[in-house]
Design goal:
Elements: E1 4-7, E2 12-15, E3 18-20, H1 24-29, E4 36-37, H2 39-49, H3 59-73, E5 83-86, E6 90-93
Length: 99
């Protein structure tokens, strides 16, 4: 997507030619093609990482992960290139080439 390159099988991410050091949760968010509630992405990402554990999901913890991911992507909520906030719903990963 744009300059963002993801390789889910290898768990490798890069922005242009710069490797990104994403946490497991951030990698789980990356590339989500549709709008998700705040709880949805963290629950799914946590499930993929440690499916045997139960996680308490809080709205603010998702916001913190999204904020960190935006910083790593050089993205801004006011003019998003990769992560769009959907008011009263949550977040959606967008392809900057489709904008």
């Amino acid at each position: 997507m744009g300059e963002l390159h993801l390789s889910p099988d290898a768990r490798v991410a890069a922005l242009g030619d710069k490797p990104l050091d994403l946490t497991a949760i951030e990698f789980g968010f990356a590339g989500m093609p549709r709008a998700h509630t705040r709880a949805g992405p963290l629950t799914r990402a946590a499930h993929r990482i440690h499916y045997e554990r139960n996680y308490d999901v809080y709205d603010r913890s998702v916001d913190v992960h999204i904020c960190s991911l935006r910083k790593k992507l050089g993205d801004e909520s006011a003019s998003p290139r990769y992560i769009r906030t959907i008011r009263a719903v949550g977040y959606m990963f967008i392809n900057p080439d489709d904008a």
